[in-house]
Each structure stands twice: as C-alpha cells, then as structure tokens.
Amino acid sequence: MSMNHTRKELENQGHFLDDEALAEIGPWMRWPYVLCSSLMIASIVVASPWAVWTLSTIALATVFLPSHPFNLPYNYVVRHLIGTRPLPPSTKQGKFACGIAGVWLIATGAAFYVGATTLGYVLGGALSVPAMLVATTQICIPSYVYNAIFENRETQPA
Q: For residues 40 and 43, what is the distance between their CA atoms, to the nearest angstrom?
C-alpha cells in the first residue's frame, strides 16, 4: 500500500498527518480497527450476544471519549517499545463510524440473544466487511458517508 493511498484514506477519516508522522504512524493507524474487527468476527462466529454487546459498548464509548479505547494499549505500551509517537485522538468521522458500528452490534447481539442466529450472522457478516476493509486497507466507508453528509454541507456558503 502506497503512502499516497494511506494519506488519502487517513484524510478521508479526518486525520491530516505531515510526512514524518505519516511515515511513522500511518501503518499503525489501523491498530484499533484490526483489534475491533478481529474481536468482532470472533464474537460473531461463536454467536455470543454478550461478547458482541461488550464490543458495542466499546464502539459507543468511542463516540464520547477523546480516543478509541483500543488506542490506549498502543499509546501507553506498544509505541514505547517501537519508538513512535502516540496515535491521534478520534475524529468526527471515526466517532460516526463507531456510533454506527455500536448500534449495529447491539442489533446483532439482540438477534443472537433471542435465538435468531441466522439474522445475527447476516448482520454481523454485513458489518464485518467494512470493518475488515478499514483494518486492511484504511478505506473507511462510514467516513465517506459522513463526509458526503456533513463535511460538504459545512463548507458550503450559507
């Protein structure tokens, strides 16, 4: 993956990094998404409503916290081991994406809880696709949606 691709996708997510920061932490910006999508897929595979709801709580907390909770292990442990700067705070786009994921995970967990396992797998599978996309390529579909709805409106004259 080229640095130009990474820069474009991170800017779509609201992260504007200088060249030095991009080279240093650009690849690590996927950290919370890799953790989330991996845990989400595992929770869905075992059809655990409690595990799915735990992840929904983490996703929804991200809407209100300055940074994704999964940035904490990176910012307080990993970065010191590898000598990089901390990951930046969550952006409006990231909070929007996590809000959507949090609500979606509530519905997925509810499907598993009431015994609608097929529906839970369908909902969970549908959410897993964009989650794995951002985890592997930095392409964040909810960020594109957010920017289309809100950013264009904010930049237009009143």
A: 5
Residues in the chain: 158
Residue 6: inside a domain: no
Q: Residue 158: is its pLDDT beyond 50?
A: no
HEC secondary structure over 92-140: HHHHHHHHHHHHHHHHHHHHHHCCCHHHHHHHHHHHHHHHHHHHHHCCC
Burial of 107 (0-12, 13-18, 19+ CB in 10 A): middle
**Structural domains of the chain, count:** 1
Give a yes or no: residue 141 inside a domain. yes
What does the pLDDT look like over 36-68, one tens digit per residue? 999 999 999 999 999 999 999 999 999 999 999
| Parent domain of 129 | 26-151
87 within domain boundaries: yes
| Amino acid letter, residue 131 | A
Q: Which of 115, 144, 124, 116 is nearest to 56 (CA)?
A: 124
145 in a domain, yes or no?
yes
